[in-house]
Design brief:
The chain is mostly helical and 137 residues long. It has a domain at 19-96. Helix content is 47%, strand content 7%. The protein has helices spanning 23-28, 54-62, 72-81, 89-100, 103-106, 113-136, and strands at 43-47, 65-69. A two-stranded parallel sheet has the order 1-2. Helix 2 (54-62) links the parallel strand 1 (43-47) and strand 2. The chain is globular and about 45 Å long. The two termini are 21 Å apart.
Length: 137
């Protein structure tokens, strides 16, 4: 998701697969054109504690991202102690809420992963369209 919570890519798997295992596939499936890659990380990727570790670090560096790993406690402390600090975690939580409005997606009864991913893409397209209408009127 971008800084406004607009979905940039999606991948699907079983519920028993940890998020960090899908990080590579998620970053490779981003459809929005990114700036030219340089030697140093150019963009910040906000992540939660599930992405702590060597595997996630290697993957994010390979795709030229800088990790922003902060717990909820750290974000709330920074917001209290630093005037004007903008917490970033709420963007992801809000975007998850947008997807939860599509009740068909909450529990997958689809027979194939491809059909469920198709429904996710449809929901993402509708979210993008609604946010564009809100922004541009």
């Amino acid at each position: 998701m971008d800084a406004r919570g607009i979905p940039l890519s999606q991948v699907a798997s079983g519920a028993n697969v940890h998020d960090v295992k899908l990080l590579e596939a998620t970053l490779e499936s981003i459809v929005y054109p990114r700036p030219e890659a340089k030697d140093e990380p150019t963009e910040i990727l906000c992540m939660d504690a599930g992405y702590v570790g060597y595997e996630a670090l290697v993957t994010t560096r390979k795709h030229h991202y800088q990790q922003n790993l902060k717990s909820r406690r750290q974000e709330s402390d920074e917001k209290i102690n630093t005037p004007g600090h903008q917490a970033r975690r709420w963007v992801v939580e809000r975007s998850h809420s947008w997807f939860n409005r599509y009740r068909k997606l909450l529990v997958s009864f689809e027979k194939t992963e491809a059909s469920y991913l198709g429904l996710l893409h449809l929901a993402a397209a509708m979210i993008c369209w609604r946010q564009t209408v809100v922004i541009y009127g």
